[in-house]
Automatic annotation (TrEMBL):
GO terms for molecular function: transmembrane transporter activity. It is a multi-pass membrane protein. The chain crosses the membrane at residues 45-66, 78-96, 102-119. The lineage of its organism: Bacteria, Pseudomonadati, Pseudomonadota, Gammaproteobacteria, Methylococcales. GO terms for cellular component: plasma membrane. This is Small multi-drug resistant family protein. Keywords: Cell membrane, Membrane, Transmembrane, Transmembrane helix. Its main location: membrane. InterPro entries: EmrE-like, Small_drug/metabolite_transptr. It is found in: Cell membrane. The keyword Transmembrane helix applies.
Amino acid sequence: MHIFFVAIISILLSVAAQFLLKAGMSSIEIKQAFAQPLTLRLPWIVLTNAFIFGGFTLYGLGAVVWLKVLSTWDVSKAYPLVGLGFGLTVLVGIGMGESVTALRVLGVLLICEGVWLVANT
């Protein structure tokens, strides 16, 4: 498999992880736990939430996949590709009904342009 596609898989895993973590942290259970005084039970409640656990799992898988990218490419070439995650996150966010301003879209487009420039060097 071409290493660029391996990098894209890693980025997709990270984007999916972000949305799972957001879903977990937005759950009633987690909001109620954070509304209470801090106890040692809080980390347990957070870490056993299925969405949060899934998010951390996807991050871990993404990191393992990313190791393959790093074994092949220079970090200075590979790491800017992570910027594509910004674009994918905005697209998924729009699809999920998040409010995305034109200025935010412009900023993400500039990031993606920078990624394109780095990838073509």
